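Review form for a predicted model. The reviewer records the input and the model, then writes brief findings.
Reviewer: anonymous (R2)
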Amino acid sequence: QRGAPDDLQDMLAEYGLSSRLDEQSDKLPYGLQKMLGLVIAYATKPRILLMDEPAAGLERAERTHVDRFVAKVRATGASAKASAARGRTTKSRLPRSFRAWRKTSRATRL
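Model under review:
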């Protein structure tokens, strides 16, 4: 756990993952697989975390976990943005420099 965020163990426990660390990730229930992916991304200590439909296919209770996760990431000072194909979207504000990059790089993105 060298270099891991201080609250990583708390996050694993909060999302029901700490007791399942010895299991293969593909054997976990779908909601736990999604949360594990988010927690792994968080463990890299990102300054900007972009998530593509992190709540897709999750039950209502599991979607609240995603909302709480995004709030925790933002509380660390990082920016977090989640997209949604339709319906409810987790809202955030990206840094001004990132918004400027998006405008100038549209032609180069795939």
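Findings: Residues 87-95, 97-101, 105-110 have pLDDT under 50 and may be disordered.
Further findings: The two ends are 35 Å apart (CA to CA).
Recommendation: see findings above.
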